[in-house]
């Protein structure tokens, strides 16, 4: 996974495409553009039967450039980094900083791709992609781009609830002083706990629980485990926030109904 920090200090998690996915997408693109080239050349030959050899060669060159350079560049520009092969494999081309590519990136990739894909029968592209961590071909290196996975499985939200043994304590505990950053760390731990190694999970739970306990009063019952403590606080904080929002919504609705009943001037 590639971690990118934007100018606003937001961390982006991007998953570079694998070599196999890129190769499959490239093969689909090559077949598509080859079929397009045949169709274009057939159409040009039918339209230019009465032309001399020089004009015919110019038409063939035009068809090749249109099918193998202009169309790929246009598709990637209009779709912000997609092509037929990338759509089929769920990939997208992005800049090194994680942003969408622009026309100049697509032009560099398209012109270089004509050399490394078609003039060398894909050998140069495959050789370069095999020897870098993000499976980038030469056009990506020159343009400052790489391919990422656009279809990432959606993680199922972890069910967070107050353990039954802690319900009496959680309902009366003072948790209003918990800083937002600390609450986010506790919620993030609960989401990721199932993917952590047992030793790391236990150490992280103890660390976050110790930080959280400084802002909670009274302390939880004796022998309460760190994970149960975190789950109880996070779930109770969420439930109280939902209740507060629901009450505010009901108050606003009641005020709106009273305003509608007030007599208006004729």
Keywords:
single chain; about 270 residues; two-stranded antiparallel sheet; about 5% strand
Characterize the structure shown.
This protein is mainly α. It folds into two domains: 148 residues, no CATH class; 98 residues, no CATH class. It contains ten helices and four strands. The chain has a two-stranded antiparallel ribbon with strand order 1-2. The chain has a two-stranded antiparallel sheet with strand order 3-4. Strand 1 and strand 2 form a beta hairpin. Helix 8 runs antiparallel to helix 9.
Outline the secondary-structure elements.
Blueprint: E1 2-5, E2 11-14, H1 19-47, H2 53-78, H3 84-89, E3 91-95, H4 103-119, H5 123-130, H6 138-143, E4 145-149, H7 167-172, H8 180-192, H9 198-213, H10 226-261
Antiparallel strand pairs: 1-2, 3-4
Helix pairs in contact: 1-2, 2-4, 8-9, 8-10, 9-10
